[in-house]
Task: inverse folding
């Protein structure tokens, strides 16, 4: 796995897979030292794109405490301890609704300039860095004009606190409007978009969290036309749907939002392809992105070091494009 994907009109060269850090300090261990082997293995496998968010795992109480910025703390301590800040392309995100309990209202937006500045400065402190390579709006607030939202990011760029900006969970309409404004002003627009896209997202049921935007319809068409905004899909492994199906069968995934007739057919095909290519289900699920209609750098949250090594193998397998395109032509 090599860091050989250049985001257009930037000096960012990224690996074909990003490391999702939502489990840093939780499943990876409470002490940041316990996460060193996860980060280290990712770097050893050729990875360099690390994806954080100021809100990640806020909803998880560890020893009864809801820690703000837990994944950023663990990531920042690893970079500081190992001197790796210059070796990575660092992503973090701000503007997410408060999420220190599963009962919080995720529709209460926090995307004002003041909200974003507070989150960014908190992230910089916790990550122990002077700048973020790509800083994202984690959510959108359609009541705020895109001009204000773009100018907020431009202020951060002028101040040297971020290098580029991206958007996550934005509609096509808002992205198009923001990009048009950037072109008028001579700005580099959003360099990346994080939306939900995976092998089963086209045929899944609606998610409980309706603030997550699925890359389909107009948004999918937008990415087909606009390759200057790199797609960085989250939930790239479809919440383990295909892995669980392969290991335990259809009954084990019956309650999954991915459990639809078409996705169950796709799951059978995934098992067949894993046998055909003598590879893991993970490789088929991540390999799908190489057959998408626009460049994708999926974000992958590993269980352990072995799962990173397994996922990295994806990019050495020569899948036939037709094998990885089980979707219908119409979206």
Result:
């Amino acid at each position: 796995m090599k860091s050989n994907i250049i985001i257009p009109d930037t000096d960012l060269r990224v690996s074909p897979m990003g490391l999702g850090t939502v489990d840093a300090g939780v499943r990876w261990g409470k002490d940041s030292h316990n996460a060193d082997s996860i980060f280290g293995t990712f770097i050893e496998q050729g990875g360099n794109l690390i994806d954080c968010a100021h809100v990640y795992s806020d909803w998880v109480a560890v020893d009864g405490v809801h820690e703000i910025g837990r994944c950023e703390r663990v990531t920042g301590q690893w970079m500081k301890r190992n001197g790796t800040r210059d070796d990575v392309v660092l992503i973090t995100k701000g503007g997410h609704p408060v999420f220190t309990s599963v009962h919080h209202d995720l529709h209460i937006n926090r995307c004002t300039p003041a909200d974003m500045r507070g989150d960014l400065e908190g992230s910089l402190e916790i990550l122990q860095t002077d700048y973020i390579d790509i800083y994202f709006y984690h959510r959108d607030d359609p009541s705020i004009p895109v001009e204000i939202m773009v100018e907020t990011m431009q202020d951060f760029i002028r101040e040297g606190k971020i290098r580029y900006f991206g958007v996550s969970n934005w509609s096509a309409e808002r992205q198009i409007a923001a990009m048009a404004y950037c072109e008028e002003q001579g700005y580099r627009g959003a360099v990346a978009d994080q939306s939900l896209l995976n092998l089963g997202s086209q045929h899944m049921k609606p998610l409980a969290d309706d603030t997550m935007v699925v890359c389909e319809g107009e948004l999918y068409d937008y990415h087909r036309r606009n390759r200057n905004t790199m797609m960085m899909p989250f939930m790239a492994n479809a919440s383990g749907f295909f892995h669980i199906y392969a290991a335990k069968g259809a009954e084990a995934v019956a309650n999954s939002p991915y459990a639809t007739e078409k996705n169950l057919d796709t799951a059978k095909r995934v098992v067949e392809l894993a046998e055909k290519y003598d590879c893991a289900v993970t490789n088929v699920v991540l390999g799908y992105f190489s057959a998408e209609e626009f460049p994708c750098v999926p974000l992958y949250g590993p269980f352990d070091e072995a799962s990173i090594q397994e996922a990295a193998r994806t990019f050495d397998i020569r899948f036939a494009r037709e094998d990885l395109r089980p979707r219908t032509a119409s979206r």
